[in-house]
Amino acid sequence: MTTRKTTAKANAAKSTVGSAPPTTLDHASLMEALRTLMQPLAALSVARGMSYAAVEEMLKMAFVDAARAAHSNAAAHRMVSRISTVTGLNRREVSRLTQGSVDAPMRAPRRSPATQVFTRWVAEPSLKTAKGKPLPLPRQGPAPSFEELARSVNRDVHPRSLLEELCRLGLVRVDGDTVHLVRESFVPKEDTDRMLGFLGSNVGDHLRAAVANVLSDPPPHLEQAVFADELSQASLGEFRQIVRGQWQALLQATVPLLHRLIESDQTTKRTQDQRVRVGMYMFSEPMIASTGNSDNKVRTRSRKPAARLKKR
User: 292 or 237: which carries more pLDDT confidence?
Assistant: First the structure.
């Protein structure tokens, strides 16, 4: 078993976000990391029928935005030249990509009021049974009721509309005048747009944290993982249940706390200009995998148990 955390304490020269890359940058390692990141993105694009040309255009734009952010102090009349030098794109292409663009801070992803209601219901201790299961709620009436739960989260959307959306997503069911929670996790399998939105938001923030940690010293974000091989299917199933339980515990600890902190900030009139995302993921696959090389060789990686426990 190995535990890992992203760190900036490498042999390369120190760098901060937005600074020039260190002269000792190991491009081979960077290329390998980028290839690993691009493979699942390419698989998703192919599966959803998105062409290489469309992705290439987005990648060019991302490079231009990153270069412009890294050299924000450059004179306006030299910005195109500076971006061209940094990215390798020709000046005409940079001019085309920057024409009519407006610099703006990245906005936090829009959150669905229905999913906010669902999250509050799952995590709120006062809405649980003695065994820790979510309570069925009367559809209307004083708290605890679905109507009051919905209004505690969002007063701009009618509780009936939120209930209909939760039913559409398969998260709740209505029996007469009682609303039951059907699931305790939100994975909208039938809602592709939401799934892709979560993909971009969750993986995007995870990647931003990891990149910031590589480019900064000390690393500003928590970003750690534990991984192991030589497991059986039975052992993997047992471990998966443990991970799911840990996620539920984290959810129940953080959601009520975040609500209290937000309310405290509002009461004390502190500037509310920060956002946070905390997540957990688990990935597993067979140890035997194709390298993707032209010779189609198959390789396995096996490490003895005694050699797995280490930190870096």
Answer: 237
Find where tokens 């024409």 sit: 99
Pinpoint the alpha helices (H) of the chain: 27-47, 52-70, 79-87, 91-98, 113-123, 146-153, 159-168, 192-198, 204-215, 233-268
Encoded amino acid at 169, one letter = L
Residue type, 88: G
Helix (H, G, I), strand (E, B), or coil: what is residue 175? strand
128 phi/psi in degrees, rounded to 5:
-120, 155
**137-138 and 2-5 beta bridge pairing:** unpaired
Task: Classify 292 in phi/psi space as left (phi over 0), alpha (psi -120 to 50) or beta.
Answer: left
Confidence of residue 112 (pLDDT cuts 50, 70, 90): confident
The dihedral formed by the CA atoms of 251, 254, 260 and 265, expressed in degrees to the nearest 10: -130
Gap between the Cα atoms of 20 and 201, Å rounded? 27
Q: What is the pLDDT of residue 110?
A: 53
pTM of the complete model: 0.62
The CA distance from 251 to 120, in Å, is 10
Write the pLDDT tens digit of every residue in 170-214.
Answer: 889 999 999 999 887 766 555 677 788 888 999 999 999 999 999
DSSP conformation letters of 263-301: HHHHHHT-----------------S-EE---TT--EE--
pLDDT at 63 over 70: yes
pLDDT at 132: 84
Domains of the chain, with CATH numbers? 113-181 (1.10.10), 228-312 (no CATH)
Measure the CA–CA gap between 166 and 164, rounded to whole angstroms. 6
Q: What is the pLDDT of the chain when averaged over all its residues?
A: 80
CB 149 within 8 A of CB 143: yes
Spatial separation of the C-alpha atoms in residues 139 and 160, rounded to whole Å = 9
